[in-house]
Amino acid sequence: MTKKAVWTASVLGAAALLAAFCLLVPRRYPVPADTTIGTRSIRYEDRPKTAAEITVARYFLNQITGDFKEMKKLLPNTELDRITLENEKEAFLKGESMETYIIRSITTLDREQYAGDNEAFSYPDAETRARQENLKDYAVIHVEFYQKWNNKAESHAPQWNSGECGRNFLVGKKALDKNYKIYDFGMMM
After folding, report:
1. What is the C-alpha separation between 128 and 137, in angstroms, rounded?
2. Closest by CA position to 152, among listed 36, 40, 37
3. CA 178, CA 30: separation in Å to the nearest integer?
4. Fewer Cβ atoms within 10 Å of its own Cβ: the N or the C terminal residue of the chain?
5. What are 138-185's pLDDT values in tens digits?
6. Which pLDDT belongs to residue 27?
């Protein structure tokens, strides 16, 4: 074998080894632990561990940063989503926004948890909704969090008050989706 052939075989072998290593190493889904923009802030006391959890974590982050372009990528492109995002963006630009989120815990629920009788995790329609949306892969993500609206938003009596909350999210992928999206927001608890 020539030097060039040996060098090429070595490089290809190293590349194959690196590719195999990358498949075996758990992937990280980065979300900043603390983000502050002006008077708005978010802190994660619990870090997301899966791609589905990171999708929900990014939704909370985008509400604080006001990045509605990124938030749109986390939702299916339905008329309801477009209207909701436009209304949220309009309120944000008027200065009516969430001031603080503290994510206490973010957890992927198993079927017994979300389909069971425990009111803290109950999301009995998750499977039906996943079928209606033709999701090939889905998860129910439960988030415990503290939220505080800014004074301007509080003065307009938001639907959900400031304080400790819990909420489930149906997160999934359709057959051709590369990334998870939030298909349903469960009731606030």
Report:
1. 13
2. 40
3. 17
4. N
5. 999 999 999 999 999 999 878 888 999 999 999 999 999 999 999 999
6. 42
